Amino acid sequence: MDVHEVLERPIVTEKSNDQMALGKYTFRVALTATKPEIKRAVEEIFKVQVVSVQTMRVRGKLRRQGRTYGYRSDWKKAVVQLKAGQSIQIFEGV
């Protein structure tokens, strides 16, 4: 899998912004991505050193449009811990 296919987009929420002070960054990743693939992708794209990767699968929520019910797609979230003193510039000032 190409490194640009692994990381879909950053997740910017209050909780993820608080974790940035601790050197943890949150990404939405491909559902089939593994921890080693996520680590390699973050290191290659942002030129930083990754200490650890934590992943979790988020189940799609039930949504309704009129009488029709359906589910949003399942997705995968990864929290990446960087080496002390390093940061990802794309997140700064968000």
Task: Give the tags.
94 residues, alpha+beta, Alpha-Beta Plaits, two-stranded antiparallel ribbon, globular
Gist of the model:
By secondary structure, this protein is an alpha+beta fold. The protein contains 3 helices and 6 strands.
**Which CATH architecture?**
2-Layer Sandwich
- Helix amount: 10-25%
Give the count of structural domains: 1
Mean pLDDT equals 93
Total DSSP E strands: 6
Biggest sheet: strands, sense, closure? Answer: 4 strands, antiparallel
Biggest sheet, spatial arrangement of strands = 1-2-6-3
Which structural class matches the secondary elements? alpha+beta
- Helices and strands, in order, run as HEHEHEEEE
Q: Provide the β-strand percentage band.
A: 35-45%
Shape assignment? globular
Q: Mind telling me the C-alpha Rg?
A: 15 Å
> Treating each run of at least 4 consecutive H or I residues as one helix, how many helices?
3
Describe it:
This protein has 94 residues and is α+β, with helices and mostly antiparallel strands. It has one domain (3-86): Alpha-Beta Plaits. 24% of the residues lie in helices and 37% in strands. The chain is built from 3 helices and 6 strands; from the N terminus they run H-E-H-E-H-E-E-E-E. Strands 1-2-6-3 form a 4-stranded antiparallel β-sheet, with helices on both faces. Strands 4-5 form a two-stranded antiparallel ribbon. A hairpin with a 2-residue loop joins strand 4 and strand 5. The chain is globular and about 50 Å long. The relative contact order is 0.25. The model has no long low-confidence stretch (mean pLDDT 93).
